[in-house]
Amino acid sequence: MKVVVVGATGIVGKTMIRVLEERNFPVTDFMPVASDRSVNKKIIFKGNELTVQSVSNALDFKPDIALFSAGSGLSLQVAPEFAKLGTVVIDNSSAWRMDPLKKLIIPEINGDILTKEDKIIANPNCSTIQMLMAIAPLHWKYRINRIVVSTYQSVTGSGIHAVKQLEAERLGKDEPRFYPHKIDMNCLPHIDVFEQNGYTKEEMKMVNETHKILADPTVKVTATTVRVPVTGGHSESVNLEFDKTFQLSEILSILKEAPGITIVDNPSRNEYPMPINSKGKDDVFVGRIRLDESRENCLNLWIVSDNLRKGAATNAIQIAEKLISRKLI
Question: Which domain holds residue 55?
Fold first, then answer.
């Protein structure tokens, strides 16, 4: 496979390169691509030093797969140009997620809907991916009618400038702020822009993407998304209301069998998912699994995952692997 990573010098792009190496993805030729200000920088891939190229050079390269993590503006502009060449674009931005003609894919959940005609495929939002990884198998069994989710999201989800703000604040330095407020020793209930309904764009992503991926717009979803001063991954408190009755033992059995899920749930030994332990790992970790005693047919979960990996890079590469395994590319 001829592969390009567009946005190769960014925090997610670098993770994509690392995941390609770790998973031994079948790359025959690789090209790192970035904006004009990053062209000619050096990237190491499988021990070889490569020069970062421009988008125009990447188009001339005619790759089989283009992994995009360079923002929605660039994706909207150039992804169709790659698609015209026959390149499969897997895009990590929000550009194509809600386009009715584009698939929004978590391979373990809806990867089987992909076809050879899909040349631009959207990678879901990081917080949506980890939540649905845990709850989709439960939805298929008991049908979820309502989801209440509160997130505690890593600064890495905002990119390198946000990480630098946190690091500078912890050192007592006065650096330009990425966020509108201090992030160290603080929580910001503000991810992305506020919309007219009072919710942030991030919160509405979780609503709309859940409906699209589950192919069920009747599931009620309400979200509050919060930025917290950690770097290891995103955490989520999720409350589910089901149509059907269930046993907690059945929930545990389903989650144990679900691909990509690791249960960490032993409160007597202080064992539960934490972002410090999810960093650098591809699984979604689930714990604090318990009945909601205030309401019938309700369940509480605590879900943690590295947002740069399963929430972004790994999921994108798994989409490519799914295409290859099904001989769609």
Answer: 2-124+312-325
CB atoms within 10 A of CB 276: 11
pLDDT at 175: 78
Residue 195, burial from CB neighbour count under 10 angstroms (0-12, 13-18, 19+): exposed
Element at 47 (helix H, strand E) = none
Are residues 282 and 175 part of one domain? yes
Q: How far apart are CA 180 and CA 259, in angstroms?
A: 39
Put residue 257 in one of left, alpha, beta given phi > 0 → left and psi -120 to 50 → alpha. Answer: alpha
Name the domain count of the chain: 2
Same domain, 87 and 184: no
CATH number of 218's domain: 3.30.360.10
Name the β-bridge partners of 299: 240, 291
3-state secondary structure of 127: helix
Catalytic residue IDs: 126, 234
Is this model's pTM higher than 0.90 or not? yes
pLDDT digits 0-9 by tens, 22-81: 999 999 999 999 988 899 999 999 999 999 999 999 999 999 999 999 999 999 999 999
